[in-house]
Write a structure and sequence with these properties.
143 residues, Metal Binding Protein, Guanine Nucleotide Exchange Factor, Chain A, five-stranded antiparallel β-sheet, four-stranded mixed β-sheet, binds zinc ion
């Protein structure tokens, strides 16, 4: 397992990742929707890895829905960084992480341009379940 850490700029949202493969084997997915382009976001996830998201002050966690409005973009309202995106199906939380929120230069593979906006809402959900972290712990604290 390869352990990575990340956070938003001010440290309000912190992430701990375990990847099943070496970082170079992951191609960050640069989503071409208008929202992700404006953030310069490209996403890393691993259905065989694990992810922990901890929010130090839940008052400064922004949840933004766009596109098909089925997933939530997690944005720190303190510093404005887009940390990742989550999708909840009953008890299970799926998530993908903005590779730009990961600390240091990890040496991921070359980014790949993707266009999930052309998919239907059902197709997107199938894609998220196949590609995203499904072993996700989410902790939100009150300051
Ligand atoms: Zn922040």
């Amino acid at each position: 397992m390869h352990c990575l850490k990340g956070k938003c700029h001010c440290g309000n949202i912190r992430i701990d990742i375990e990847l099943s493969k070496a970082p170079a084997e992951y191609a960050p997915r640069a989503c071409d929707c208008e929202f992700c382009r404006k953030h310069g976001a490209s996403y890393i996830s691993d259905p065989h890895g694990s992810l922990r998201i901890e929010v130090m002050d839940s008052q400064r966690l922004g949840r933004y829905r766009q596109g098909s409005e089925t997933a939530e973009c997690l944005i720190c309202t303190g510093c404005g960084v887009l940390v990742g995106v989550t999708y909840r199906d009953g008890e299970r939380l799926y998530a993908t992480i903005n590779s730009r929120a990961i600390d240091n230069d990890i040496g991921f593979g070359e980014a790949l341009s993707v266009s999930p906006k052309v998919l239907s809402a059902d197709e997107k959900i199938r894609r998220w379940k196949a590609l995203w972290f499904s072993n996700v712990t989410f902790v939100a604290n009150d300051a």
